[in-house]
Amino acid sequence: MSQFPLLSSPVKLGSMLLKNRMMTTSMSPGHDYTNEEGQPTLRFYNYLEERAAGGTALICQTICFYPRLKSQLDHLHPLPLGYGEEHLSHLSKMAEVVHKHGGLIVGQPYAVHDWKPAPEDKEEYWGPSTLSVSKLIPKPMTKEHIRIFKENIVQCCVILQKAGWDGVEVMAGVGGILNRFMSPATNDRTDEYGGSLENRCRLTVEVMAEIKKACGEDYPIIVRWSPVDFIKGSLTMEESLKIVKILEEAGAVLHNLAPGWHETSVPLTIKDVPEGYWSWISEEIKKVAKIPVATAYRNTDPFSMEEILAKDKADVIAGLRYNIADPEFANKVMEGRPEDINKCICCCRCLDDVISQGKPLNYCGVNPRLGEELETPLAQARQSKEVMVIGSGPGGLAAAVTAARRGHKVTIYERGPRLGGCLVMSAIFSPIYDRLNTYYKTLLKKHPEVKVHLNTAVTPALVTREKPDAVIVAIGGHPIDLKVPGAEGGNVVKSHDFLELLNGNPPQKPGIINKVMYNCGSVFLKFFYTPDLARTFMGKFPWPLGRKIAIIGGGLPGCELAKEMMHYDRELVIIEEKKKIGHDVGGSDRFHIVSAFKKSPRVTMEMLTKVKAITRAGVKVVHEDGSEAFHQAKTVAVTLGFEKNMELAEALKGRVSEVYAVGDCSNPARMADATKAGYKAACQI
């Protein structure tokens, strides 16, 4: 019996019977998943099949519902084409790879931002009127445009039905074209498509009516819409409760709710949003809904999902990132194996790449099998080898697990007292990152054939003695030092000082208090460390981080430290040589982090500023224009990031036939890069 009886139970959406209550929301994975002809590649088919085989009940996939010219594709996000008979072949195959595993698939004619009324036109930003909530001014649609728009969507739905797709989803949310008609913030029309709520919903209702006319009354129509959009002057909950009835009378089989628009400044998906938070919206909609309601965004934990269903806040859990992170999420839920789920850590790398930057879906913080890795299954090694993995951060652990799955004999060496490498420290500032460490610990417990040596610093002599066939070096990067007068003072804390402290190695700092506290702290944390304990100690105790902190380096490490210290009312100044604070922070997080800094009376940001010297009282800086300033600080935290650390890898060349360096030691970057690099290295052995 599953631990998740509701999440694992079937649910009917019109004529569709879902085998469980987990569905994906729509997103095209982008370049290299769809070719220039608008056809899915092997990568795309495998992406869909992997998730259907993993037990996902319903997959929603975006489809381009109007012609695109090849000459325009270089700057457009690629989507599978689905408006003509010539597309039936690849659309049928997309359905087949899902159906063969008992999954269902619905298509969403992608009508979010751009559209074009004629094949030779350029795709442009269309809407009901020129009213806008952003810098983009929509082209107002005439009634002729509206007619063509409806015809385009209906024709796409007819083709999807012929190709064997199980239903369609009408996109009437997130600030898309239909949503802009529904909202008074973007619709000031005076005809039958503007004014009253019924008029503003008219286009959505007409689209649904014409789909039913063309595809049959029983062909399921899901509607994705945004009852709470955080747009000034837009829909109220009172209006949204009325929209529920309008959509149901039009024939919807599921309210698939999406909080906010793409233009919304309220954080929606980042890790700071609590798990399952947005279910309060679906809970309100369910009070009047007569059909199932799906909640989306920030649903990544099966226990939270089950609780949402148990409290009758929703009927279906919709999401994408939990499914990107672990394609087998649904199967593990239904089999009662939640400890085996590789949970999303909400790093937003997938969203940053695909939506913000127009890149393909190649990277995930926890799942390396995206992009080209999807094109081939993980193959067994021709010959089992002795593999030494040095370091147990994300790159090392990904490498070790992958090598073991391929049939190699793997031994992990970690110089600290616990697995996790940099994850041990990262989890202090981002508690959700401990999920990945917990996942790997659980996996290794279930696979004792992977040996682990803790408290073991690897030297070339040790490697020579152990005689491995291959070595993967994943020891992390060198912290970038600040080379100014006073940089070695007792009030200076470097990023790796924390990691050394957690590893039981007291940093050597001048001052009797430092010596006593670092020595005592290192002994205590070596045996009793938890991220929560370290976070509480660091925040509530005025050592080693005092009440006034100067943070040198406004990249990701500095931002994470500052964000955590804001919770404890520290006085902060962030000093950065580049133009932007958070220059290497993902796009999903950066706006909200920097916005919080700007709003806080306790945070000062100094961009285009260099540190000149550090004293016991604070930091001397010089600005781009040559002017100087002094910032008082009890503690100076140096968070300049990392640089390559290739000494050990270079020393091992010639001693071992195969040597690979992965993660920050070879390429300082984000967690997803290290995870991918570890996987790829293990595949080469």
UniProtKB/TrEMBL annotation:
Matches recorded under InterPro entries: Aldolase_TIM, FAD/NAD-bd_sf, FAD/NAD-binding_dom, NADH:flavin_oxidoreductase, OxRdtase_FMN_N
Molecular function, one GO term: oxidoreductase activity
Alphabetical keyword list: Flavoprotein, FMN, Iron, Iron-sulfur, Metal-binding, Oxidoreductase
Matches recorded under SUPFAM superfamilies: FAD/NAD(P)-binding domain (SSF51905), FMN-linked oxidoreductases (SSF51395)
Segments crossing the lipid bilayer: none
Cofactor list: FMN; [4Fe-4S] cluster
Chain ranges of the FAD/NAD(P)-binding domain: 386-673
Leader peptide range in chain numbering: none
UniProt record similarity statement: In the N-terminal section; belongs to the NADH:flavin oxidoreductase/NADH oxidase family.
Name of this protein: NADH:flavin oxidoreductase
